[in-house]
Write a structure and sequence with these properties.
With 279 residues, this protein is mainly beta. It has helices spanning 5-23, 149-153, 186-195, 265-269, and strands at residues 25-33, 36-39, 45-47, 53-55, 59-62, 67-72, 77-80, 85-92, 102-103, 120-121, 133-140, 142-146, 158-161, 166-169, 173-179, 206-213, 215-220, 223-228, 248-252, 257-260. It has two domains: 25-95 and 127-161, no CATH class; 166-271, no CATH class. A hairpin with a 5-residue loop joins strand 2 and strand 3 (45-47). The longest helix has 19 residues, at 5-23.
């Protein structure tokens, strides 16, 4: 037995870091077209492939012409657009508790005097432990997202930081994109902003957000606003009873938040890219 101890200790030393790494798994690559990498918290760069894990602390980079769909442990999806840098700043998910199952006590022996024993509940995981959180950072590019349980159960445990504003959710499907310098539809964005009396400098970063379901809250240096999804009919039925246009919100580098009456063409073209079905 004594001779086996060195081998057992060596095996434990190998398994310990693997167990610690598994505990930090945040999600999985469920779809990848093109090339993507992940920069780990330890400085290691990994080339991603379908079914690979992503971890809390990873900085995920999508290549030119590449889409990466990430499914997180709480059921959330993030479909990263080409040339996007997206950091999983801090992620941890503790499954929600299920109702306790009543368990009847065993029957008393025949000779015993009958008693009224109380029901016993099977031990279950406690709800509202505060251990779940989903903090992300959009450094460059953009994504479409369908929220998971973390954002639905406790809104304070979810946020996406960007250079110009922080995004919070209320159980939703939405998109966020950073337009920097000569982005692909810069001229269209500038035209829409000028149309509502807002000017943009050539090097200004503009965060473009749209909402297809639920709502998001944008917080910038100049305040906050709630952006709701368009109602039935969207742009096609704008002005009709029971409908509202699918607007876009532009948040500028100075923190100003501007609502434009119609979405940029890229946002309309990508509305069919539902991350929950891109796998």
């Amino acid at each position: 037995m004594i001779q086996r101890l060195p081998r057992l200790l060596a095996a434990l030393l190998v398994l310990a870091p693997l167990a610690a790494t598994a505990a930090d798994v945040a999600g999985t690559v469920v779809m990848l077209t093109g090339r993507a990498t992940a920069l780990g918290a330890d400085g290691t760069v990994r080339t991603l492939a379908r079914n690979d894990s992503v971890f809390s602390g990873d900085l995920v980079n999508s290549g030119s012409g590449s889409y990466v769909n990430l499914k997180f442990a709480d059921g959330a999806f993030f479909l990263l657009r080409p040339e996007t840098r997206f950091q999983i700043e801090q992620y941890g998910y503790v499954a929600a508790a299920t109702p306790a199952t009543p368990v009847k006590p065993p029957p008393a022996p025949a000779a015993a005097t009958p008693t009224s024993a109380p029901l016993v509940t099977a031990p279950q995981q406690q709800a509202g432990s505060g251990s779940s959180r989903a903090f992300f950072r959009l450094v460059k590019g953009g994504f479409r997202s369908v929220s998971g349980l973390i954002g639905k159960l406790n809104q304070d445990d979810y946020r996406v930081s960007t250079p110009v504003a922080t995004i919070g959710i209320r159980g939703t499907s939405y998109s966020a994109r950073l337009c920097e310098g000569a982005c692909e539809d810069r001229e269209q964005i500038v035209t829409k902003l000028r149309g509502v009396g807002k000017s943009v400098t050539p090097d200004e970063i503009v965060l473009v957000t749209t909402v297809d379901d639920g709502s998001i809250e944008l917080q910038s240096s100049q305040g906050s606003t709630v952006q709701n999804a368009c109602r039935a009919g969207g742009d096609e039925a704008a002005g009709k009873s029971g409908s509202s246009p699918c607007t876009a919100v532009f948040t500028s580098s100075d923190g100003s938040i501007t609502v434009v009456p119609t979405r940029p063409s890229i946002e309309n073209n990508e509305r069919s890219l539902n991350p929950a079905f891109c796998s």
